[in-house]
Amino acid sequence: MVTVIEASGLTKQFGNTTAVDNVTLSVPQGALFGLLGPNGSGKTTMIKMLTGQIRPTTGMATVLGLDVVNDPVGVRKLVGIIPEQETPPSFLSAMEYLAFVGAVRKIPDIEEKAAWWFSFLEFEDKRDVLCKDLSRGTRQKLMFAQAFLHKPVLALIDEPLINFDPIMQRKVKGYLADYVKSGGTIFISTHILEIAEEICSGFAILHNGKLLYSGAISELSGKKQHLSEFFFSQVQI
Amino acid sequence: MGFELFTSMMKEEWRLHSTVFGSISFALFPVLIFGIVFMSSFLLPLFRAVLPAGDLALVTIGVFLLLGVMVGGFGLLGNEVMNRRFGQMSLLAYSARSLPLSERYIFTTFIIKDIVYYLFLWVLPFVLGFAVASPFIGVPAMLPLLLFVSLTMTFLFGLSAIFFLSTVYSRSKPALLVIFAAVVVMAGWAFLSYGTRLGDLFPPLQLLRNATWISFFLSCILVIIPFVVSVLIFKPEYSGTSKRFINLLTPLTRKLSFFPTPPLAAKDLIDLWRSGGGIGQVLFSFLLPLGLIWFFLSVLKSLVPDYAILLVFAVTTGIISATMYTWITSFDTFSSYACLPVSVSTLITSKICTFTLLQVIPAVFIVIVTIITGMVQYLIPAMVLWGAVSLYALSVSIYLTGLTPNILVYDVRVLIAFLFLIGVPVMVVIALSFINPYFGIAALFLGIPAYGLVRKGYTRWEAKDMASF
């Protein structure tokens, strides 16, 4: 089985705080993998390290075969990323932002592709509005579109559905499922267990920076256990 | 409730500054001002030998006027800047929707907070430095007190004038133009009719030169009227508007195809334009400081040759031009690029390209000044001095601050390093220009350390974790 993410002994310290503590993890190609954990457990730091935005204090990680420390730009070229806080540039309109991403990533026919995303995520009426004037939900739609604009083989998403209404959540979950079926891999971080149980094939639990468990969702159904029960038994709350 | 809001705003301002610049670095800033003024006060007898006391007062007043204008200007843009720097956050000044307080009330408290905060940060350390030195340099005992009142009034006028102008701007742009035109007409009338510079009529300056109750009263009026009017005509502006913008990015990216990363440069220019930076920045961050500097330099006319004033002005323009780097980084953070295949060094390179494009403004400015002053024969050394100093100062900013040049303002350690790295070579090129104007062309050699600093800056900032999402 081909692995797309391989982390070994990954640790990140901010001063005296250890945000991620010696995490070893692998994610196979074609998985919809959920990194679960309470707030402040180190999920976002983990994604930042895997996308080369911050350097691990110790340990190493490869994403699609590229070392995240030595070639962070190479990693970001191949993957799609949706940050937890949606931060498209303030003074570009939604259309301009997608054109900007298209130009940086050298994506052909950007107008057509952007038009498809505006239509699919139902925000065509906001295409010419400045990002700073968009609602949080619309900003997240825009960030979702930019992450998949270049059809990456792997997408890393931090809290994917948090600002979407139930209708949009269903639509996006459907998109992610189809994406994985067509050979893509998704790595999501979330603290909403219901979402993870519904869409993920594999998962890992992070708590206080430590990896408590990593395995397949199917293992839980074999034990007739819900993800939430299993999660609470692991984090012992 | 009012006092709680005020103290919360004070804490917020302090925490914002100390988060950005570091608690110790920021806390040392007033100490640095105190130290500089204390030591400079001992040079006062020397200054007086070459400069009339009245002109020295004018220079000091001018600096604090500029400070008031800059603090007021930042207060108005602060929320947007801070959102870019810290992600989605909200300052108390913009919290009328979540607190049971009116916009006007919050705005008034915000201004009072700015006044108190910056008085402690700038005005008091300045006056205390002078006051402590005053027994040793034989100035009248009342002078430090007069200086305090006069500088406070000047700073407050700068603040209240910028609030007034911005509220007028939000109501009616033509009205703002009428006000500017009226000031120009008044200045011309005062000069042509009485041979008096408008600055000399500025009440806080008169208060410092020749303290009377009338000048004190007039100074108070000058501060209070614009302040009251701006509170009365204040009109809050909410984001969330549905204003639409046509796609400028795609055509601009095509036009900038000669740059290494055209979309990044196009984005910078659009940010600058749409943030209101285009005209506002040129006016308040470029023309206004240079106008004041030209005025101060013209005081030295009787002491040095005309060409020397022009060349020193070109060097100063170079340093001020380098601050254009902050124009293209203020509304930007690495988080905007964190999900894209863009490295920090690529971003810095792109900012350098945009910066180079913006240098058209000072280039035209230097040409105009050279023509107006009738010193076209010195155009080449003036242009070389300006261009070389500007690029060198940019390289120092990049090396010291990476993509966050605003840190220069209050991080004492960075500021001292900046002043040292700029000051030494600038003194050398100015000295050479004084010997012979064409020796100033030697400033071209600044290109060598500039190149080295930028390369080192790439390595330095590439190795750091950038603040992102």
Protein model, in words:
The complex is a heterodimer of chains A (237) and B (469). Chain A has 237 residues and is an alpha/beta fold. Chain A is built from nine helices and ten strands. In chain A, strand 9 and strand 10 form a beta hairpin. Chain B has two domains: 239 residues, no CATH class; 219 residues, no CATH class. Chain B is built from 19 helices and no strands. Chain B starts with a helix and ends in a 7-residue tail after the last helix. The chains are: A alpha/beta (237), B mainly alpha (469). The interface between A and B is large, with 44 and 44 residues.
Fill in the keyword field for this structure.
heterodimer, A: 237 residues, alpha/beta, Rossmann fold, 4-stranded antiparallel β-sheet, 10 strands, 38% helix, globular, B: mainly alpha
Helix content of chain B: over 70%
What separation lies between the terminal Cα atoms of chain B? 35 Å
* Major sheet details of chain A: 6 strands, mixed
Poorly predicted runs of chain B: 78-89
- How many distinct folded domains of chain A? 1
How many structurally independent domains of chain B?
2
Oligomer: heterodimer
Q: From the coordinates shown, what is the CATH architecture of chain A?
A: 3-Layer(aba) Sandwich
Instruction: Report the helical percentage of chain A.
Output: 25-40%
Write out the strand line-up for the largest beta sheet of chain A, numbering strands in chain order.
6-7-8-3-9-10
Strand content of chain A: 25-35%
Largest contact between protein chains?
A: A-B, 44 and 44 residues
Shape estimate of chain A: globular
Percentage of residues in DSSP E strands of chain B: under 5%
- CATH overall fold name of chain A: Rossmann fold
State mean pLDDT of chain B (0 to 100 scale): 81
The coarse overall form of chain B would be: globular
Structure summary, number of beta strands of chain B? 0
